[in-house]
């Protein structure tokens, strides 16, 4: 089954990861060797959630409007994370997935967060 994964705002998220001390090598390594661990307990949002094998990152599915909102606030969010002490979730990647083989291929969005 073929799929297309698109990194949204890759330059911004790359810089954000660097600014908070996450190297691109370490980031990729968390996803490259092992399966993700499902720990979904969908509440009202219905989001699916997964952890990387090393428990460093969480992947959470988003609705399209949530992904658009994150893109709209991204520059201010980046400043908030890097210049102030904050209790905000640390989002370090935003991606979309499509299955082009299907005529009505729906995009699935997910965000990657740092596990606290």
Automatic annotation (TrEMBL):
InterPro entries found in the cross-reference section: PInositol-4-P-4/5-kinase_core (IPR002498), PInositol-4-P-5-kinase_N (IPR027484), PInositol-4/5-P-5/4-kinase (IPR023610)
A GO molecular-function annotation: ATP binding
Listed Pfam families: PIP5K
Coiled-coil spans in chain: none
Keyword check for Metal-binding: no
Transcription regulation listed as a keyword: no
CC per GO annotation: plasma membrane
Keywords linked to the UniProt accession: ATP-binding, Kinase, Nucleotide-binding, Transferase
BP terms from Gene Ontology: phosphatidylinositol phosphate biosynthetic process
Domain PIPK: 1-116
Protein name, per record: PIPK domain-containing protein
Record organism: Adineta steineri
Species lineage: Eukaryota, Metazoa, Spiralia, Gnathifera, Rotifera
């Amino acid at each position: 089954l073929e799929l297309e994964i698109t990194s949204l705002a890759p330059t911004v998220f790359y810089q954000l990861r660097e600014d908070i001390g996450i190297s691109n090598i370490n980031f990729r390594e968390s996803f490259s060797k092992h399966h993700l661990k499902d720990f979904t307990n969908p509440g009202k949002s219905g989001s699916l959630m997964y952890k990387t094998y090393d428990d460093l990152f969480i992947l959470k599915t988003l609705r399209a409007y949530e992904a658009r909102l994150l893109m709209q606030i991204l520059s201010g969010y980046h400043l908030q994370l890097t210049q102030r002490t904050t209790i905000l979730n640390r989002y370090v990647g935003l991606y979309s997935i499509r299955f082009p083989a299907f005529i009505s291929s729906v995009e699935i969005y997910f965000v990657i967060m740092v596990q606290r």
